[in-house]
Amino acid sequence: MKVTSISRKLLTRVLSVYFVLTFIVTCVQIGAEYINTKSHINSELLTLEKTFTGSLTRAVWELNTHQAIDIAEGLVAIPMIKGITVMDENEQIIARLGEIPVNEPFNTQNDTADNNEHLTIDSLSDGLFGHSFPLIFQFSGRTTKVGTVTLLSSNKVIFERIEVGIYFLIGNAMVKTAALVILFSLAFSHLLTNPLNELTEQINHFDIDDPEASKLHIMTYEHNELTILQTTYNNLLDELIQHQNELSSAQQEILAANHKLDEQNLQLEQEVARKTSSLSKTMLEMNKQQHELIEQQKQLKAENHRRSQTEQTLIKTNDELKSSIAELNKAQERLLDAEKMAVLGKLSAEVYHEINTPIGVSITSTSYLADLLVYLQKDIDEQKLSKRTLDDFTKNVDQSLQLLLNNLNRASDLITSYKQVAVDQTSNKTRKVNIAQYLDEIIQSLHPKLKKTKHVINVNCLDNIEVYCHPGAISQIFTNLIINSLLHGFEGISHGVITITADLKADRLHLHYHDNGVGVPESKLSLLFDPFYTTKSGTGGTGLGTHIINELVTDTLNGSITAHSKEGQGLSYNIEFDDMR
């Protein structure tokens, strides 16, 4: 059995507590140095903001990109600055230099309730921190936000500034810890370990036959716990000697009494054995029969109870299965309807965001026209109106009206396309549809998704192809097909191409859809139209897109759909259905 030293265990626990306290205190001191240094760096960043915000605001307002980049390069040259990002009012990047976090978004928090004030930035994984502040330009008594600047520093700068202090704190803690270990080791060895070893050696030589010679003798002049232990142990040996003498006398008396008792027990056992022999034989037979009857009765009761429970369980399970099947059918119908409307909801959000830009530009143009009219009226009232002033007014008004008209037309086109597609998707009515024009409207409604990519959609369809059908089904089918290509087919592909071909033969419309994406393995192609089959289950995919397409083609349009694909060569769909007039 392995022996554990008490002194070593006690020394280990005391030193462990000291180590933990020393480590915590050292970490707290380092943390305080880190926070204090980071606060100083943030103050220096605010000083740089006040120094350079005027020149950056003027450069961005005047669209002087070269000057803005020169200022950004000058700021990055400062050792404290590890990264800078300059953006205009549309959040388009003008300059991005130095270290910029790419693996995760900034953690930002407003310093005040106003969105135009500073935003504190802290990216933990990249070790960057800093703040973002707006560029405000004052013109004619009005303030305008013309851009945003983000200044970043890093934990590396902090550690470089506090490196010497950290080494000093760690060295101080190590020296104090080493000195304490040595002092404690010497004290424990002299006061506890050596005396205990001496006691252990004397106890190991204990002789049960001569307890008097096994008493402890410790060479110490202090009255402590070890002296008390020695005295107690020696007293115990004295009592042991006394009890040995008493035990010897008692054993002699017990041996004589046991001899007499054995003779009497032998006579009594012989008499009892003769009287109980016949009775035991009879009782054994009766017990055996009774035990057999009880076992048979228990088996019959258990079998009846088991059959009754099994019958009730089967009836209850059958009812639950019927109820579950009905609920599953209802849930599947609701889930399919929800998935159909989910695509329309996403398009609504993106179209809303897309319309904001031209409307915002139109509001700005209108405001600018109002300012021009105010200045013109002022010149008229002060009788300072000149031909040059009128020419400038006419030129500026013409440019503003042209900009206003273009952006309002753009918003109108988006709303018209989206409105037609949305109305069709929520209606089951049959109407005459120009296929080429309707495909253009569907693609136009998906423009907010397509404009963020470099993918291209080509439509090969004659302008005179017209059929009677459910336009909502057509829009849902191609919306799901295009979104599936963007999310699944073009994963890892920057320049994808989608080709849609339409042909009318003997009142039967043939539609062919093909993308040049990653394709689907042949082993998975048979599962393509199954409900809830998806390769994006961990990122929000439901696996109902192609299942809905199949139901719309077969049930709503009374047509057929087939899919063809080879891995790495894209995915194709062939859709056919008859004119419904």
Structure description:
The chain is of the alpha+beta class and 581 residues long. Among the domains are: 6-178, Beta-Lactamase (2-Layer Sandwich); 427-578, Heat Shock Protein 90 (2-Layer Sandwich), CATH 3.30.565.10. Helices cover 63% and strands 15% of the residues. The strands form 3 sheets. Strands 2-1-6-5-4-3 form a 6-stranded antiparallel beta sheet. A 5-stranded mixed beta sheet has the order 8-10-11-13-12, covered by helices on one side. Helix 1 runs antiparallel to helix 3 and helix 6 (435-445) packs across helix 8 (471-489). It starts with 5 loop residues before the first helix and ends with a strand.
Largest sheet: 6 strands, antiparallel
What is the count of helical runs? 10
- Low-confidence segments: 104-115
Percent of residues in β-strands: 15-25%
Query: What's the CATH H-level homologous superfamily of one domain?
Result: PAS domain
Distance between the termini: 96 Å
* Rg (CA only): 47 Å
CATH architecture of one domain: 2-Layer Sandwich
Sketch the topology as an H/E string, one letter per element.
HHEEEEEEHHHEHHEEHEEHHEE
How helix-rich are the residues, as a percent range? 55-70%
Chain-averaged pLDDT: 77
The counted number of beta strands is 13
Under the CATH scheme, which class of one domain?
Alpha Beta
Structural class estimated from helices and strands = alpha+beta
CATH fold node name of one domain: Beta-Lactamase
Strand neighbour order, sheet with most strands: 2-1-6-5-4-3
Overall form: flat
